[in-house]
Amino acid sequence: MSTANPSQNRSFHLPRISFASVGSNGMLIIYAIIVLLPLFIVVTNTMRPTREIYRVPVALPASINFDSYVIAWNEADFSTYFMNSLVITLSSVVLGTSVSALAAYILGRYNFPGGRILSSFFVAGLTLPFRLAIVPLFLLLNSLGLIDNRLGLILVYAATGIPFSVFILSSFFRQLPQELTEAARIDGAQEFTIFGRVMLPLVRPALATVAIFQFVPLWNDFFFPLVLLRSTDKWTLPVGMTRFFGEFQTDWSTLFAGLVITTLPLIILFLSATEQIITGLTAGVRK
Amino acid sequence: MTALPNANPDAKPRRTWRKNAMMPSVPTIALFILPAFVLYTVFMVYPLVQALIFSTFEFNGLVRGDFVGLQNFQQLFSRYPLNEQLPRAFGHNVAFFLGTMAIQNTAGLLFAVLLHKPRLGKRFFRTVFTMPYLISPIVVGYLWRLMLNPLFGPINNTLKSIGLSDLAKPWLGDPATALPTVILVNAWMWVGFPMLLFGAGLAGIEEDLREAARIDGASNWGIFQHIEFPLLTPVIGIVTVLTFIGNFNAFGVVWSLAGVDGPPAGATDVLGLVFYRTAFDGGSDAFGLASALAVLMFLFIFTVSVGVQTWFRRLEDRMQ
Question: What is the CATH number of domain B88-270+301-319?
Answer without folding.
Answer: 1.10.3720.10
